[in-house]
Design goal:
Elements: H1 2-26, H2 31-35, E1 48-54, H3 61-64, E2 67-71, E3 77-81, E4 85-86, H4 89-100, E5 106-108, E6 123-129, E7 134-142, E8 148-153, E9 159-163, H5 165-168, E10 190-197, E11 200-206, E12 212-216, E13 220-221, H6 224-236, E14 241-244, E15 260-266, E16 273-280, E17 286-291, E18 297-301, H7 302-307, E19 328-335, E20 338-344, E21 350-351, H8 358-370, E22 391-397, E23 402-411, E24 414-420, E25 425-429, H9 431-444
Antiparallel strand pairs: 1-2, 1-6, 2-3, 3-4, 5-9, 6-7, 7-8, 8-9, 10-11, 10-15, 11-12, 12-13, 14-18, 15-16, 16-17, 17-18, 19-20, 19-22, 20-21, 22-23, 23-24, 24-25
Helix pairs in contact: 8-9
């Protein structure tokens, strides 16, 4: 059996080599192959403003209808025939770049067009430039390996062999050329975002200083990086496929009312854009979705719905307690009845009565307090220990303000924290508490008096 398989492999290789030798002997490579001349020497992708695609090789009547795409005044592509639809900009840019870069692996002069499937081509693509120049490309058969395809231009008899992947995008259905995006936005363009999922609302809005804030379900400063990620997720959402452009109703897709509605308002005061997401399609991993301003229903991946299951605590700014430690001029650490007061002089040196290492202690604690990053915002914390704080740190700033940090119970690397005058409770790393315990615990531990015998 092993020898038989080996024989089949050798036979296949021999047939492939023989076929290539036949093509090259019957149609020897011209000097164009050596120079790697392009199929279209003067084709500039950015200058093309109209594309005609004729899928001639299909037996499906609907797919044989020519597709016409045109670039508008703002250099935006649209499908104009057989229906009017926005076109997918990235798909067309890739298509035109590929055509402009066609460098054939083989050029065959005076060929028998029937031999390469070019007497009745699989597709005809016509490209028109702004200057009125027309480029026509005919696509024939693929070679026996399927990795290359035979093409020719409309004004020459020469047949070229190019990678087949570069021609596959030139004879597809209309859905492959239409716009698959739902909403294009970014943190600069967007002013307000609202996500309603299963009746729960989360909303963000920019203030007059262009800072993002959470406005629902509570008011708090928002994490700008999280907002950028959220808007990026919205902009990158693409339709996997299109269900219908003329739905008879929305309820059957779970879109009336929708399970999820994501709405974005632009900063220029224009109308909002919204994405509606319904239920899952039977025996499919896709969810029905549409924009609020268009009837088309498409399928999207389930990942989008999961990404929109937002938790308010994840979107709150976790750096709100941070400040510039260099602007601290006073630091008082309270531990029970003990108070350790540090002051910074005009030369930036810290001092504290009875603390010979005051400079190290105060500068270290000030830096740690200034860099606190919140780990979590507990909703209904219990057992915080904040009614009788383990430590309270008061920081006097050069601008006359004061920051008061109250540290409660700590465990597993976290400690409860409140900051006067706010009543909010945070969970933060217990690094500062551990540092303060290291500095002050030995002082607070009673030292036994020396026995008379030890004085002798």
């Amino acid at each position: 059996m092993k020898n038989f398989k080996s024989t089949l492999i050798y036979l296949a290789v021999a047939v492939l080599v023989g076929a290539l030798c036949y093509v090259q002997s019957k149609h020897p490579a011209t000097e164009k192959e050596e120079k790697k001349a392009k199929v279209f020497e003067n084709f500039v992708a950015d200058d093309i403003n109209e594309i005609h695609i004729e899928n001639l090789g299909t037996t499906v009547t609907a797919l044989r209808t020519p597709i016409v795409l045109q670039k508008g005044a703002k250099d935006t592509w649209r499908i104009t025939e057989p229906v009017k639809l926005p076109a997918d900009e990235s798909t067309l840019r890739s298509l035109l770049t590929s055509v402009g870069g066609f460098t054939p692996d083989l050029a065959i002069e005076k060929p028998d067009l029937k031999e390469f499937g070019l007497d009745q081509p699989q597709a005809r693509c016509t490209f028109k430039s702004k200057a009125g120049t027309t480029f026509t490309l005919l696509i024939g058969n693929k070679d026996m390996t399927g990795s290359s395809a035979y093409v020719k231009t409309g004004d020459k008899d020469t047949v070229y062999m190019v990678p087949s992947y570069s021609t596959d995008s030139l004879h597809k259905g209309i859905d492959d050329y239409r716009d698959h995006t739902f909403l294009q936005t970014d943190p600069v363009v967007a002013k307000k975002i609202q996500v309603i999922r299963d009746g729960k609302t989360l909303a963000f809005e920019k203030d007059k200083d262009n800072n993002w804030n959470m406005i629902l379900p509570l008011q708090a400063r928002a994490d700008a990086s999280k907002i950028r990620d959220l808007l990026s997720t919205l902009s990158s959402l693409r339709a996997q496929s299109f269900v219908t452009d003329h739905p008879s109703g929305l309820a059957q897709y779970g879109l009336s009312p929708p399970h999820l509605r994501v709405e974005v308002w632009p900063s220029d005061g224009g109308p909002s854009k919204a994405i509606l997401v319904g239920h899952k399609k039977d025996k499919s991993a896709g969810l029905y979705a549409k924009t609020a301003d268009a009837p088309t229903i498409a399928l999207i991946g389930e990942y989008f719905d999961k990404n929109m299951d937002l938790k308010p605590s994840d979107y709150r700014d976790k750096s709100i307690l941070q400040f510039d430690s260099g602007k601290a001029k006073g630091l008082a650490i309270h531990r029970g009845s003990k108070v350790f007061a540090y002051q910074k002089d005009d030369k930036g040196q810290w001092s504290c009565p009875g603390r010979p290492n005051a400079q190290t202690e105060a500068s270290t604690l000030a830096a740690q307090l200034a860099g606190i990053t919140i780990m979590d915002f507990p909703d209904h914390p219990t057992g915080t220990g904040l009614s009788s704080p383990l430590f309270t740190a008061e920081v006097d700033m050069t601008d006359g303000t004061q920051r008061v940090f109250n540290f409660g119970n700590h465990d597993n690397g976290k400690v409860y924290l409140s900051v006067d005058p706010s009543k909010d409770v945070y969970e933060v790393p217990d690094v500062v508490v551990s540092q303060m315990e290291g500095y002050y615990n030995t002082i607070l531990t009673p030292v036994p008096a020396a026995s008379p015998a030890s004085n002798k």
